[in-house]
């Protein structure tokens, strides 16, 4: 089993390790170098579209990305600081649950590939929906995941294009009102974090047990976790 989650837009800039990324044993270094080649070929006037920031900020982010291998690192679970990660609250898990999480949760990064929570990674900024990164990573992710019994997919739609599997179970959280369901959107991020914590705290590896999750009114209805409002 593997649980796929997206990286967070928010990242800590603090480096808790003195190790440069180049000195780590990260799995996808060759692939990352190809992503950096794509970035290095980008024209200066294209940077605002790639980074979604002002030109001044985009130039700074671009330079930092191109220096990726020389930059110092933090553990991935310390680097990502978004809502899902906050509600997952990895730090407060016991040792057994941390080991379980390190072994089973993977972050799908447009820059770095498949990232484990205890991987050392540098700070960076690059979304999955630029430079045809979903197409680039798809065969790589697909090969890496091919032997899994099943995959729990907590990804947004863009990231779901970054791999292919017939053993993937999409996990979505939705609101139901007047018999119409809509995505929980930003509100769904907190419940995703709680869902991850439920799995990790109980070391769950059987799908039928995982789908018993019932918190904040969300219940599995065979297609998604739904909350009536």
Give a structural overview.
With 229 residues, this protein is an alpha/beta fold. Helices cover 37% and strands 20% of the residues. The strands form three sheets. The chain has a five-stranded mixed sheet. A hairpin with a 2-residue loop joins strand 9 (173-177) and strand 10. The longest helix is centred in the C-terminal third of the chain and has 15 residues, at 187-201. The two termini are 32 Å apart.
Q: Biggest sheet: strands side by side, in what order?
A: 5-4-1-7-8
Beta-strand residue percentage: 15-25%
Tell me, briefly, the overall form: globular
- Helices and strands, in order, run as EEHHHEHHHEEEHEHEEEHHEE
Main structural class? alpha/beta
Major beta-sheet overview? 5 strands, mixed
Average pLDDT metric: 96
Helix content: 25-40%
Number of helical regions: 10
Number of strands: 12
* Unreliably modeled segments: none
Rounded to an integer in angstroms, the radius of gyration calculated over CA atoms is 18 Å
N- to C-terminal distance: 32 Å
